From TrEMBL:
Catalytic reaction(s) noted: (S)-malate + NAD(+) = pyruvate + CO2 + NADH
Family: Belongs to the malic enzymes family.
Organism annotation: Macleaya cordata
This protein's record includes keyword Metal-binding: yes
Cofactor details (free text): Divalent metal cations. Prefers magnesium or manganese.
Protein name in UniProt: Malic enzyme
Domain Malic enzyme N-terminal: 106-286
Length: 605
């Protein structure tokens, strides 16, 4: 079942070379300076003379023509100088300086921006995505220069159906939407949360090859509960308390109707909504519109793939997943999402849609262990509340502390999605040494870095060198001495959301089923070889994110076909999708991925 998928696509690079060798023309409806000021079309000094003539650019640029490769080198050179010149400055200052230089390129020339991003994704992802994107959101008021994406506010009620036509691109494939209410582990950042949809969509372009002219980051500004922000003179959002209840839902309803009226085939990814709205909107829209919630569903798939990897790392068969004791810290949208998907996997493995006699999950929130004695328990957490009596670990009371739970349960896995930095402290990590696993797994998945439940170095230092470790934001591998390395995995939903979006788009499904999400997760899990897993490597390197996304996208397409949800995309109909072999589906996905090269621009009125 867990075959290695990589060999099947060894010809991917060739496909990409071929498709980039003869770039198709790009229709542009403007001329002259308007083109130079449009990052979608601008080539800076790279416009050939013929194009300068055709588009009225002669004289608007210095005469020398610089090739794409030279422009690329020039940018990388200035990036490297910046790195050198800021060496001794505080890390936040350096990170923001790096973000600024990339953002300036993004604002000026998207083709070059995405090319440097794709080629250097391992170095640049921590800048355009977590952790730096968190810092950018926190400082958004001061950093703001040019708008990116669209802003729909509570003041726009009744206007959204017409506003959506203000977006200049006639076609949109992927939208990432936030209301800014839970930005990473940083809380309510109101309108400043727009940085998250922008960063996520950058990953869509880099990893999934979604055309940047067809992405749309959206901020739904319904106010903020963050009083400090409301009082900040530089704050750019509505300075009013967050809308609640029906008032809130009517805004989201109106936005969704507007989007799908203009772009019926678009996919909307909900991102960083506070828990109550994350679950409510998922339930409300998932059958009506093509959408998913990344924090609930994307995170769950990535975590499940890692949990299965942790079983393999113990040299145990995957079916032993049902015997793993898993402690999840954080009962929010992400933690509950992970538990729901892990529970589904357990029931599938049991073959009878039942849970094993010994419930393998323990859930903690800010009030400690969640049990059946919990007052006013959230309905989504209720299925995971522990009981008392036979089959239960003795002596664990309602609200037991994390340390008590770890000491008594001796879990195989300790997984944090609490947003609380350092909560896996020395004592908790040392208690993991008594785990019943030969290779305990510690997943500190909260973002950004300062909110991680522990650092990689502390995990290996206190819990032991034989652990497997994953974090939501990147950490360096840990030098364990004697030539040994503690491998750090990045358990982040970035390994799945681009493939879920791309696969759904290319299948033409109008709805994202549990089966499609499960297929994505299984594909990620099976991507890793036994040799890698034995080294504690549970996820691929981010350098291969395009490759893994192609595989995940193909797995999603195939599942949509199997469930008869696939209706086809552009000239490829449902029947053709049905007759594609696995390799052909992978090639189909690869063929449809955008790659940044300068296309000849053709002017049309
Ligand atoms: N690595 C990844 O791919 C992802 C990471 N995350 C991260 O997970 C974190 C949580 O996200 P959500 O679940 O959406 O947030 P949320 O706000 O819905 O939930 C947070 C949960 O943590 C609990 N909590 C707070 N303090 C605690 C404490 N001291 N001990 C135990 N539990 C405590 C809360 O009671 C709540 O249940 C964030 O930092 C976010 O960045 C979220 C999605 C994906
Ligand atoms: C990664 C992500 O989606 C989060 O931290 O919210
Ligand atoms: Mg998120």
């Amino acid at each position: 079942m867990w075959k290695i998928a990589r060999a099947a696509t060894s010809n991917l690079r060739q496909i990409r070379r071929f498709s980039t060798a003869i770039p198709g023309p790009c229709i542009v409806h403007k001329r002259g300076a308007d083109i130079l000021h449009d990052p979608w079309f601008n080539k800076d000094t790279g416009f050939p003379l013929t194009e300068r003539d055709r588009l009225g650019l002669r004289g608007l640029l210095p005469p020398r023509i610089i090739s794409f490769e030279q422009q690329y080198e020039r940018f990388m050179e200035s990036y490297r100088s910046l790195e050198k010149n800021t060496k001794n400055q505080p890390s936040n200052v350096v990170s923001l300086a790096k973000w600024r230089i990339l953002n300036r390129l993004h604002d000026r020339n998207e083709t070059l921006y995405y090319r440097v991003l794709i080629d250097n994704i391992k170095d640049f992802a921590p800048i355009i995505y977590t952790p730096t994107v968190g810092l950018v959101c926190q400082n958004y008021g001061g950093l703001f220069r040019r708008p990116r994406g669209m802003y729909f506010s509570a003041k726009d009620k009744g206007e959204m159906m017409s506003m959506i036509y203000n977006w200049p691109s006639p076609k949109v494939d992927m939208i990432v939407l936030t209301d800014g209410s839970r930005i990473l582990g940083l809380g309510d950042l109101g309108v400043q949360g727009i940085g998250i949809p922008i960063g996520k969509l950058d990953m869509y372009v880099a990893a999934a090859g979604i055309n940047p002219q067809r992405i749309l980051p959206v901020m739904l500004d319904v106010g903020t509960s963050n009083q400090k922000l409301r009082e900040d003179p530089l704050y750019l959002g509505l300075r009013q308390p967050r809308l609640e209840g029906e008032e809130y839902l009517s805004i989201v309803d109106e936005f969704m109707e507007a989007v799908f009226t203009r772009w019926p085939k678009a996919i909307v990814q909900f991102e960083d909504f506070q828990m109550k709205w994350a679950f409510e909107t998922l339930q409300r829209y998932r059958k009506r519109f093509c959408m998913f919630n990344d924090d609930i569903q994307g995170t769950a798939g990535v975590a499940l793939a890692g949990l299965l990897g942790a079983v393999r790392a113990q040299n145990r068969p995957l079916s032993d997943f049902v015997k793993q004791k898993i402690v999840v810290v954080g009962a929010g949208s992400a933690g509950i999402g992970v538990l729901n998907m892990a529970k589904q996997a357990v029931s599938r493995m049991m073959g009878n849609n039942e849970m094993p006699a010994n419930n393998p999950f323990w859930l903690l929130d800010k009030d400690g262990l969640v049990t059946k004695e919990r007052k006013n328990i959230d309905p989504s957490a209720a299925p995971f509340a522990r009981g008392f009596g036979p089959g239960e670990v003795e002596g664990l009371r309602e609200g037991a502390s994390l340390l008590e739970v770890v000491k008594k349960v001796k879990p195989h896995v300790l997984l944090g999605l609490s947003g609380v930095g350092g909560i896996f402290n020395e004592e908790v990590l040392k208690a993991m040494r008594e785990s019943d696993s030969t290779r305990p797994a510690i997943f500190a998945m909260s973002n950004p870095t300062m909110n991680a439940e522990c650092t990689a170095a502390d995990a290996f230092k206190y819990a032991g060198e034989n652990i497997v470790f994953a974090s939501g934001s990147p950490f360096e591998n840990v030098n364990l001495g004697n030539g040994k390395v503690g491998h750090v995995n990045q358990a982040n939903n970035m390994y799945l959301f681009p493939g879920i979006g791309l696969g759904t788009l290319l299948s033409g499904a109008h709805f994202i089923s549990d089966g499609m999400l499960q297929a994505a997760s299984e594909c990620l899990a099976s991507y890793m070889t036994d040799e890698e897993i034995q080294k504690g490597i549970l996820y691929p390197s981010i350098s291969s994110i395009r490759h893994i996304t192609t595989e995940v996208g193909a797995a999603v397409v195939r599942e949509a076909v199997a469930e008869e949800l696939a209706e086809g995309h552009c000239e490829v109909g449902a029947k053709e999708l049905m007759h594609m072999s696995k390799d052909e589906t992978v090639e189909y996905v690869a063929r449809n991925m955008w790659f940044p090269v300068y296309s000849p621009l053709v002017h049309e009125k």
